Amino acid sequence: HLGHEKTLARILTWFFWPSVSGSDDDGTVVLTTSGPIRGKRLQAGSSTVTAFLGIPYAEPPVGTLRFQKPLPHQPWSQILETTSFGNVCPQPSLPTYPEAKLLTPTMPQSEDCLFLNVWVPHPRPPAPAPILIWIHGGGFFTGAASLEIYDGRFLAATGKIIVASMNYRLGALGFLSLPPAAPGNAGLWDQRLALRWLRDNAAAFGGDPAHVMLSGHGSGAASVGFHLLSPGSRPLFTRAVLQSGSPTAPSGSSSLEEAKERGQRLGQLLGCTDSDDTALVGCLQGKEAGEFPKHEFSVLRHRELLGMPFVPTTDGDFLPDSPSRLLQAKQSQPIPIAAGFTANEGSYLLLFAAPTLQLQNASNVGMEELLQVLKLMVPGAPEEAVQAVARWYSQEGEKQGEAQYRWAMEQIVGDYIVVCPVAEVARRETEAGANSTHTEAEEVLSRTMMQWTAEFARTMRAAVTLWPGEHNIQEEPTGKTSVVFPVLPPPDTHTNCSVPHSAPSNVSEHKGSPYSLREVLLQG
């Protein structure tokens, strides 16, 4: 009977609450399915938004709830102040380089970290507004929705849309898989619970649950891809944007067998030596949360460039099959999707993964360093394949002069990790259907991107007409779109997702069919 009493109390609270809130309600108080919350007004340039920060959407995943699917947060009856970001999920420190400051959370770390944020234009749009839900990146082991670079107020104000974001469990706490005791993919289940909460409460914020766009960058974009491929997530959004990330990216997901091996190795590192997985999980549930990030990367069998130890797993539940097979079988949601990448993906990735290479000095990078990075990126790749790819890219980079090998290194890493996997998603879907100051051009680009994002949340066609390129979507029978931004000089595009399988000293002599970059490196 306790459950019935809680339900009755909740109904009575909702029934009487509006009459007692009275003068307290200036538009910053919203009644959600979890209970009443109070946000705060924030300036966004010359506009104003109402921000609801640190809304708890799940019970703290502590104790026996660690490694488990999240439980919806228990409802509350009093107004909950949601005016500051919640804790960030436990994660390791990033390497010390200047740009890392942008990606380093400032909020305290705690296992009690499952919070979401909502920014609403003020005054509210007269009609229900589209909703953009942002999933942060960070390789599934770092990041937070509270990072300053993810501040949703400006997009909400510029686009007159509702913007939301969420924290989700990271690293081993989010992706350890030792079923059935630890089913795996807890971080993805967190995201899904947040998506469901936002759908159920869209109207309370003035949003339209029929116009929900899911967007993310890096591993956040990969997460968007996993939701596209997961039957249980598909009803929760109507559009998707994948920015510099893909569910098929190398090291972005693992088999159940590999995940289990990593979980067992982590247990050994933390002093949990039980051979029985259930006992092992019980032991790990008793460890301090802060101990996990210290040991996670030690579970990798090889030293890998950009290797991620705990990632989404083909569990047969959230992901019925591997992402590649699901994509090939056209098992994704048939909705409007935009996928893209930037011109120099590899430069950012190398800044994080190989700070000791001192890439800012092009003369420090030669063929030896290029081969070193290739071998770290794909441990076990055949020597002939590594040499072939290095020659192919370095000859392509000859026009870069002194920066030839640095350019080749950046392009290889960017193509292999980001560009080619994103291109694969785009192809499969069409078959189915850092400056310290900003230049004027960069500010124009930022405003244009915010306008594009808001328009795509409403209608795909508006997004295309806003950024006219050499090709219009109506001209492409497959639905492919080439978009050129008029506000910045076009970069030299270089997408070598296909290279010769076996390259002689002069790769231009190759006459055979090209092979995928991944095929060359993995199969030789």
From TrEMBL:
GO CC aspect terms: extracellular space; plasma membrane
Family matches, as PROSITE patterns: CARBOXYLESTERASE_B_2 (PS00941)
Name the UniProt record assigns to this protein: Carboxylesterase type B domain-containing protein
Pfam annotation, one family: COesterase
Keywords, sorted A to Z: Disulfide bond, Hydrolase, Serine esterase, Signal
Keyword Disulfide bond part of the UniProt annotation: yes
Domain Carboxylesterase type B: 28-433
Top-level taxonomy: Eukaryota, Metazoa, Chordata, Craniata, Vertebrata
Signal peptide interval: 1-22
Organism expressing this protein natively: Chrysemys picta bellii (Western painted turtle)
Keyword Disulfide bond tagged: yes
Source species, domain of life: Eukaryota
TM ranges: none
GO molecular function: acetylcholinesterase activity
Similarity section: Belongs to the type-B carboxylesterase/lipase family.
GO process annotations (BP): acetylcholine catabolic process; choline metabolic process
